[in-house]
Structure formats: structure tokens, C-alpha cells
From TrEMBL:
Source organism of this protein record: Rugosimonospora africana
Entries under PROSITE patterns matching the protein: HTH_MARR_2
InterPro entries: HTH_MarR-typ, MarR/SlyA-like, WH-like_DNA-bd_sf, WH_DNA-bd_sf
Protein name (database record): HTH marR-type domain-containing protein
Occurrences of domain HTH marR-type (ranges): 7-145
Transmembrane segments: none
GO BP annotations listed: response to stress
Entries under SUPFAM superfamilies matching the protein: Winged helix' DNA-binding domain (SSF46785)
Recorded superkingdom: Bacteria
GO MF terms, alphabetically ordered: DNA-binding transcription factor activity
Length: 161
């Protein structure tokens, strides 16, 4: 093994990204759990809230998250059981259905978001200058679009991804 390859900056970059993601996930999970949600459940709720008509096709929800289609079904089942989302049939395709954020789901998000934004600011955005944050967000979108081309599936052109 070449010592130069082990110290390659590309290895460092991906390692830093992984460490940051794991560290932020730990910070977020604790705060979100205080509201009776798992991190992936919160992600589904926030994606629905940011989508047109507060709904997404189940397949689009899968493309936007790290979940498989069966994984999305299980998460939506739990959220539906808790009254935070409901399902509706797609009017143009009988094989598809939508996950829709309910009023109770919106209220749960309203309870979670102030603390979540505090955690984001403390451990992420607040550590960066506005220029650093803008540059990083642009860079992350370039990478996201390359590695997850379906990540904005079902999102309108005016909704931030």
C-alpha cells in the first residue's frame, strides 16, 4: 500500500464528510427523539411539508430519502398510524399513491422545528460565514445531483431542494 495514496486529500475529504454527517445525525437524533420521532420519520415529514400540496408520491419520497420503496412504506405506515400522514390514491395512476402530511403532522413539525433550527445553527450553519455556507450549499447540490439524480423528484421548480 502506498503511503501517498492513504494520505490522498480525496480520502480526507470523504472521511471529513462522513464524520460531519455522523456527528450532525447524533445531534439531530436526540433533539428529534424528544418529540417522539425517529430521524427518518422527521425527514419524511419535512420533505412532505416542503412539497407542493404537502404531498409526494411514495416513489418520489423513496427517491428523495435513503429509503427503499418498502422502507418508505414501513415509515409511512408508522406515521399514518400516529395520524401524522395519510395516503391518497393518485388520480392518474392506480398503481401509485401519495403520502400526505396531515394537520397533526404539521403541528408535530411546528413543535420540533424551533429546537431543530437551534441545533442546526449551533452545530452547522452558525459555524460558517454566509459566504462559506452559500459555497458549501452550492457544492453539495452539485454532488447530490450527480449521485442522487432523483433526489428532487416530485418537487416544484420554486421549492428549495
Amino acid at each position: 500500500m502506498s503511503k501517498d495514496l492513504v494520505k490522498d486529500e480525496r480520502i480526507t475529504a470523504i472521511g471529513l464528510l462522513s464524520e460531519v454527517f455522523d456527528g450532525l445525525s447524533a445531534q439531530f437524533s436526540g433533539q428529534i427523539a424528544e418529540h417522539g420521532l425517529a430521524l427518518i420519520e422527521f425527514e419524511v415529514l419535512i420533505r412532505l411539508a416542503r412539497s407542493p400540496e404537502r404531498q409526494l408520491r411514495m416513489t418520489d419520497l423513496s427517491a428523495q430519502t435513503s429509503l427503499t420503496t418498502s422502507g418508505v412504506t414501513r415509515v409511512v405506515d408508522r406515521l399514518e398510524r400516529d395520524g401524522l400522514v395519510c395516503r391518497t390514491a393518485c388520480p392518474t395512476d392506480r398503481r401509485s399513491s401519495y403520502a400526505v402530511l396531515t394537520e397533526a403532522g404539521r403541528e408535530r413539525l411546528d413543535a420540533v422545528l424551533p429546537g431543530h433550527l437551534t441545533v442546526i445553527d449551533r452545530w452547522f450553519t452558525g459555524l460558517l460565514t454566509p459566504d462559506q455556507l452559500a459555497s458549501m450549499m452550492a457544492s453539495l447540490r452539485i454532488i447530490r445531483d450527480a449521485v442522487r439524480p432523483g433526489a428532487t423528484a416530485g418537487v416544484g421548480a420554486t421549492t428549495p431542494a
